[in-house]
Structures are given as structure tokens and as C-alpha cells.
Amino acid sequence: MVAAANFSPKFVFERANDHVPSMKSNHVIRNLCQKSEVGIMVAPSNVGKTALAVALGSHVVQGKPVLSLPTCKGVVVHVCGEGGNAVKDRISVSLAGAEGASDYLVIRKKVDLGDAGEVMEFIRDLQAYLDETNDGLSLVIFDTFIHCIGDLQENSSVDMSTAIAGAQEIAEAFEAHALLVHHTGREEERGGRGSSAIRSNVDSEFTIKADPESNEVVLTTTKQRNLENGLRFSYALRKKLLGYDDEGYERSTVVAELLDGSERKATKPQAQQSTKQIAILSSMKAALACGEDRISTTALMPLVAYREWSSSADEKAQKSGFRGVLSALEKRGMIISEKRGKELIWSLPEALLPGKGAS
């Protein structure tokens, strides 16, 4: 068969037998986030996720390590779905006295990651800015992700795959990292809100949880496609004075202070049991100590002293939240389920059965 003279193949096949891996540094924050990738930072409300994003961005524009993690100095763009002035307040405090820092840019227009035309306009306009400043881009923060999906539905796997692809296109265009700031769902144990396609399509996931006893907040890497998983570090929220208004009243903001010595490798991420999990396990052990070796979801729920399983008072939402905690316990190997008709029946592993010495 003779190929047509103007034949242009649709698919390009690259021979990898003799490929030599590149040894060029590929990190934006070493061991945390890489160039040309998309990461997602998942957190509940009121733990300072925007403050942490600003802290990371402020380190990157200075080329300053995040604790012991080196950064690739470069421009940071913070796309604010809301509260642009508050973000700029935090940036100004974080960069006070810094010399020679790259630009930390804030834009308050919501970028629709699901709109291919708008993504290309964002790339074009940002490239024009970078050409003028002769500096490279390191990090783009979309805060929050839900404000950057336009009319797409966050529970649609197709829509969310499209939105993540838009973020990926931006990351690859600049060899930068695109970081999506995202909320947890109603049940914090179940991770980020919306379709599971969000987590499936990103390269990295950073989960944030507050420790009410220490007043610290812990970030843990819960997914890394191309890096070792389980890195974690802590931060605390600190009030910082901005100045005094025209009537003499104090104006302040809140910043995230990274805590020295907190960076470590988590051998067992999320090893601690939540209050909800402890309540269920205690009730199961008490119920099964009476002679039965299994208990149904319907029979177990009224026995558990914990009351609020969902932020919604709706009975259906409460049951869904209860089942979510059961599912989380099962994933950790703390309880076992079996299907009986339309209902799940729960039992404990032998090591946790009453009378077996389990604590």
C-alpha cells in the first residue's frame, strides 16, 4: 500500500526503547506538587484553606522553602472566586519586607475551566503579562474550584473531567502547577464534594483536617500520581495587624503559619478515629457483648449516642451520613459487612470482639 503524499497521521507513536529520563528538576514545591500537573486541596470550612494557599504562594514567589521543601521561584496567580481584597490583605502581610520576590497576582474574575475558549483566553492574557515581566509562572491557585466551573455540574463525572482537563491545559501551557482549592462534602470523612471524577483526574490530593485539641491544622497528601504519598505538615492560624482604619479601629487579617518540626511522613494517614467512628465502635461492641455476633444498620443506629450525622436535619441525610461513617470504618478494617436482603449486616473482626482483649 502506498501512502498518500499529503497524509498526516492522527496518532503519533513514539518509540520508548531508548528513552533517556530527564533529570531536570520538575517541582514547584518538592515532594508536594510538580510542574505541568493539577493538584486539589480538600478541606472543610473554617480551617484556613485560603490562608494556607496564600502561605504556599508567598513561599513560591520568594523561592523560599516550605519548611524543608524547596520551591521553584516564579510568578503565582490566585484566581479568587470571592474575597479578592481579603486575599490581597493576606498576601501583603505574608510578603512584608520580602525583597526580589516574583509577582503574586490576584484576579477576581471567575475563570470557567469548562469553557475551552475561556481557558485559551486565560492562557493568552497571562502569557502576554509574563512576556512583559520576563518571568516564569510557577503556580496557579483556583480558589475555590466550585467558582471556576461555570454552569457545569459538580456531581457529573463528564463535566468534572472537562473542568480538570481545563486546569491541566493551563498547567501544561506554562509548565506550572494548577492547585484547586475545594470543599469537603457534608460528610467530611468521605472527602471532597462532587463527582469522584474530580479526585480521579487530578495528579495530587492534599487533605486538610483541624485538630481541635492542639488548635493546629494538618495537611496530608492523600494522593500522589508521581510522588511518594503520605507527606504531612501542620499550620496554625494567626491574627496579623494590618493597621488602623480612619476611625482608629484596628484592622487585621488571618494568616497560616507553617509549624517548624511538623513536616513528616505519615506511616498511617488518617489513623486516628473520629468521634463518630468511636461512637459507632463502642456501641457495636456493647451490642455484640450481649451474645449476638452481627447487627444491622437499622438496629445499630438508635443505639449510638452520637446525634448529628449530617449538617441537614433531614432523616434521609442523617441515615446517609451514618452509613458514610460505617463505610469509612470498613475501609480501615475496623468492621465487616455482609449483604442480607436489602440491608447490610455488620460484625467486628475477631481481634475486636468483646472478650478478645481489644481496647
Quick synopsis:
The protein is 28% helix and 25% strand. With 359 residues, the protein is of the alpha/beta class.
Detailed description of the structure:
This protein has 359 residues and is α/β, with parallel strands linked by helices. It folds into 2 domains: 27-265, Rossmann fold; 275-352, Arc Repressor Mutant, subunit A. It contains 8 helices and 15 strands. The protein has helices at 49-62, 84-94, 116-133, 157-174, 197-201, 275-288, 297-300, 315-331; strands at residues 27-29, 33-34, 37-43, 75-80, 104-107, 137-143, 177-183, 204-211, 216-224, 231-244, 250-258, 264-265, 295-296, 336-340, 343-347. The strands form 3 sheets. Strands 3, 4, 5, 6, 7, 8, 9, 10, 11 and 12 form a 10-stranded mixed beta sheet that branches. The chain has a 3-stranded antiparallel beta sheet with strand order 13-15-14. Helix 3 (116-133) packs parallel to helix 4. The mean pLDDT is 88.
Map the helices and strands:
Blueprint: E1 27-29, E2 33-34, E3 37-43, H1 49-62, E4 75-80, H2 84-94, E5 104-107, H3 116-133, E6 137-143, H4 157-174, E7 177-183, H5 197-201, E8 204-211, E9 216-224, E10 231-244, E11 250-258, E12 264-265, H6 275-288, E13 295-296, H7 297-300, H8 315-331, E14 336-340, E15 343-347
Parallel strand pairs: 3-7, 3-8, 4-5, 4-6, 6-7
Antiparallel strand pairs: 1-2, 8-9, 9-10, 10-11, 10-12, 13-15, 14-15
Helix pairs in contact: 1-2, 3-4
Pfam family, one: AAA_25
Organism: Phaeobacter italicus
Protein name: Regulatory protein RepA
